[in-house]
Amino acid sequence: MPLTERFTTLLKNHGLKKTPARLRVLEILTKSSQAIAYSEIEHQMKAVADRVTLYRLLISFEEQGLIHKTFDHQGTAKYALCQANCDIHTHHDEHVHFNCTQCNGTFCLDTVILPAISLPKGYSASSYQFAITGICKNCRG
Amino acid sequence: MPLTERFTTLLKNHGLKKTPARLRVLEILTKSSQAIAYSEIEHQMKAVADRVTLYRLLISFEEQGLIHKTFDHQGTAKYALCQANCDIHTHHDEHVHFNCTQCNGTFCLDTVILPAISLPKGYSASSYQFAITGICKNCRG
DNA sequence: GTTGCAAATGCAACAATATTGCATTTACGT
DNA sequence: ACGTAAATGCAATATTGTTGCATTTGCAAC
């Protein structure tokens, strides 16, 4: 299925209207091998949409389960497409992230298995954020 | 050992001068059962120190291994005292954090054992950030 | 105790990041 | 083609973090 068609379906399935800005963001995220910071998306969106539009767009994408948002080792928000069929009700992003201190890249490590963790009594978990900081594959070259 | 004396030693051991602002921050962090956001510390520091001083103070505390800094589920920076004998060379903070979505509290779960994780080839880890988001003990009560 | 100096602080200005209100435009079902 | 709710753009504002520089302070050496 061609990209644009896939995006159209994706947006429709999540009750979102198809707009140039949204298609562009989906394209950017799809073509990236890693999670992208807001500033980077904005940079690539030049002339396509206003800053505010981008903020609001990302918020609704996240609410609707199209993308997930993580924070790297410096607290910078990074966005990536959800792999599975997330939606507004079941929005899970249970995989390990790797943050590179050299290139500042954030990678989703889908192959790493999440260990089970038992919480102390009284606490109830709704989601997990596991991140590893270090040097990535590329930067070690 | 009384608090003030302990703080004095702590600062001296890390090559930091003893100042009212620093003593106050140590006191605030010591008396808190959870990690504290910058804004909260600033609020409790009213009239004791300038915003900028607080920022710089926290940075040097972190560099010298007196405190550690984490980001909660909303990307807010939170600070807490280091438990062990961290210093500028060996600064480790390998425990699980719990972020409550109701009170926005961040707790260090020292009792939870960190699982071992094996990275894909090519990646090398220097630190780990494991966080669990949910409802904390107090908010369930 | 006095002195000297690096460290720490305060202030002002600035930079970066995120949010809100509101008028206008656009997508899309009917 | 039309009507409406959703989406956008713009301006203003809020929040958060940083930089430069003059002044003050802690503390070690004398």
CATH class label of chain A: Mainly Alpha
CATH architecture of chain A: Orthogonal Bundle
Q: What sequence of helices (H) and strands (E) makes up the elements of chain A?
A: HHEHHEEEEEH
Oligomerization status of the protein chains: homodimer
Number of helical stretches of at least 4 residues of chain A: 5
CATH superfamily of chain A: Winged helix-like DNA-binding domain superfamily/Winged helix DNA-binding domain
Class derived from helix and strand content of chain A: alpha+beta
Number of domains of chain A: 1
Task: Provide a brief overview of the structure.
Chain A has 141 residues and is of the alpha+beta class. The first copy, chain A, has five helices and six strands.
Detailed description of the structure:
The structure is a homodimer of 141-residue chains. The longest helix of chain A is centred in the middle third of the chain and has 13 residues, at 51-63. The first copy, chain A, has a single domain, classed as Winged helix-like DNA-binding domain superfamily/Winged helix DNA-binding domain (Arc Repressor Mutant, subunit A, Orthogonal Bundle), CATH 1.10.10. Helices cover 33% and strands 23% of the residues of chain A. Chain A is built from 5 helices and 6 strands, in the order H-H-E-H-H-E-E-E-E-E-H. The first copy, chain A, has 141 residues and is an alpha+beta fold. Chain A has a 3-stranded antiparallel sheet. The A-B interface holds A 71, 73, 75, 77, 96, 98, 101, 109, 111-112, 115-137, 140 and B 71, 73, 75, 77, 96, 98, 101, 109, 111-112, 115-137, 140-141. The structure holds a DNA duplex (30 and 30 nucleotides).
